Amino acid sequence: MNYRRLFSSDVPSFMRSPVREIFRKVDLSAICSFAGGYPAAVTFPVEDLKTLPGRVLEKYGTKALQYGATQGVPELREAIAARYGVPVSQVQVTTSSQQGIDVCTRILCDPGDVILTTEPTYLGALQSFKAYRADVRPISSYRQPEKGVLRIDAPEPKPHYKFIYVIPDFNNPSGETMTLEERKEIVALARELDIVILEDSPYRELRYSGEDVPTIRELAPERTLHLGSFSKIFAPGFRLGWIIGPEELLEQIYVCKQALDLCPPVFDQYLAAEFLTSGALDANLVKTKAEYRRRRDLMVSLLEKYMPEGVKWTYPEGGMFLFLTLPESIDTIEMYDEALSKGVAYVAGSFFFLDGSHRNTMRLNFSFIAEEKMEPGLKLLGGIVAGRLNR
Amino acid sequence: MNYRRLFSSDVPSFMRSPVREIFRKVDLSAICSFAGGYPAAVTFPVEDLKTLPGRVLEKYGTKALQYGATQGVPELREAIAARYGVPVSQVQVTTSSQQGIDVCTRILCDPGDVILTTEPTYLGALQSFKAYRADVRPISSYRQPEKGVLRIDAPEPKPHYKFIYVIPDFNNPSGETMTLEERKEIVALARELDIVILEDSPYRELRYSGEDVPTIRELAPERTLHLGSFSKIFAPGFRLGWIIGPEELLEQIYVCKQALDLCPPVFDQYLAAEFLTSGALDANLVKTKAEYRRRRDLMVSLLEKYMPEGVKWTYPEGGMFLFLTLPESIDTIEMYDEALSKGVAYVAGSFFFLDGSHRNTMRLNFSFIAEEKMEPGLKLLGGIVAGRLNR
Description:
- 2 copies of one chain form a homodimer.
- The first copy, chain A, is of the alpha/beta class.
- Chain A has helices spanning about 20-25, 45-60, 75-85, 95-110, 125-130, 180-195, 215-220, 245-260, 265-275, 280-305, 330-340, 370-390; strands spanning about 30-35, 90-95, 115, 135-140, 160-165, 195-200, 225-230, 240-245, 310-315, 320-325, 345, 345-350, 360-365.
- In chain A, the strands form 3 sheets. In chain A, strands 2-8-7-6-5-3-4 form a 7-stranded mixed sheet, with helices on both faces. In chain A, strands 9-10-13-12 form a 4-stranded antiparallel sheet. A two-stranded parallel ribbon of chain A has the order 1-11.
- In chain A, β9 (about 310-315) and β10 form a beta hairpin.
């Protein structure tokens, strides 16, 4: 049977995650892999989880096993609302933060509609945007050279701008954090275009140094859909996230979500609610941040030790990644097979750019790799880079 | 801010579930409600769940809390494959059976594409179909009056037929089961049109009498996407289902699902895998079926006792529903407010028909209502119907 003639027009635009494809083909656990974006297993609250399920069953009974409200169970919505100081009516629980990205795109974008994004940017978001055949453009192309500010000089006919996508805190992949000024500039552009901002914020709770900057939602609550995630502060195996946003937008997300999966996982939501309201989440977060801070500092010191001159990297104040810029002569996609064969993996940075440029960059993850593999891994990588520079 | 101008073209086609809207407005637990489609809480394996999470953590460790493969964790895929006698490569785990419907529609349907469905049919499926702006048509309109067989007399230009949607076992809402002949007829039509069949099968394991009929997937594996669900044989709070289908179709579903939610809930998948492979699922299923069989028999006997002459109902061999047909003079939508005010709820049958016809029908659920409410509820309902007939 020829299935291809039956596929929808979206299908040719589906984009495989290069990261997931790497995982599919190679057993990265056997080598020194900085490729994944996974949290460290040591940060998972295994001890809490020995008692949490029993407590949930005792406290909530079979309600925790039944279908739940599409918006999320009230107990979790209330806990999220209280933590972030917003009304419950502005909280929608999602079946993962990835679903948050997907459903927001679904309610806002027709094929050809324009999404503006900072770069480098999250691959999973690009997958969603492309799957709806949106016209994704780098926001930097709207920066006016003479004035240095973001401005749209509207071409005729004006395209259908729909939203700006940003990861203001500890960007995946760059690890960088937007300053208040940069955030205000994003808000100003969104206001000028009268469009929405999708603020993807899965790492915000993971700050290891520096000071919090106000969220974009706080600067422009009327036009921001703020996406949060339990994957980095509880465990990704629960697939839970949330959207905080204007009620009128959440109402359409709610109706759409009925058709997507009826409701987020209910048992998991009660686990998360109990984890959060009991104070266990904050206690675990202290440990998680200490663990990641140490790993970040270790990675930075190892980069200083092993990388040849001419290699630069970002200094992340939080999150899970840093971003390397190598001398122009090095192509990290081309170098990947050599690295893999020698026992080290990374993600080429050009995957995170719309036009596939920046081929001399790479993303390194410091949260997932076993700590004792960091030094041999970066030593290997430094050697490979140095070898190429000396050719 | 005016959000409406930003919405995608799909949004006006989003359809609210009348059932979920009923739940949103009225506390049905206070009355005799036959409206929901929920499993009975007594069928949930609460005792097993006291030890399952601990066993999963011990056996699988932090793997059970980490991100997982997009296709589902291998242990669960293998367990499903073994249970239904298919290769693992033909199994995709979904974040609920509803997601299965949604993602199949997504990869197959453009706006205006034709989906054929039997009627009455599942509301959640119609929500997904309409959200993609498919042209959903009743398959009965293709039955040739003179020959009595399903046939397409293709109009010119031929529309883009994409798939046939059926719930062959214990249909929601009708409770009816398709005969082998009827299934073969569906397959013949699908083969004639060279399209796919979406076989929605959440109730198949819940048979209380009669004999199994082969699935449509068994009759036409090359063109069937078979949807299964853990919601009725484990617990709906876990939001887990599966798709069994041809690998070439699953491959597109896999890529699409990366963007939808990366992977199904991992911890829940291990719970389900452990529940299934340990034999606890089958043990619990015996109890579940005994419970529902008794409830079905009770409902049928109460209908015989309390319904006035001229009322007919289906006799479900499994599942959770039966379908009432009242005398033509009664409009169940119009009657609903009276019923609710007197303390009984149902779902009007016309919601399950594409054209809103069959206004003299209703769906009654026998799985969820407290058993002691069945008699007062059906007595009330019988009285209301009788009152209207005697006006």
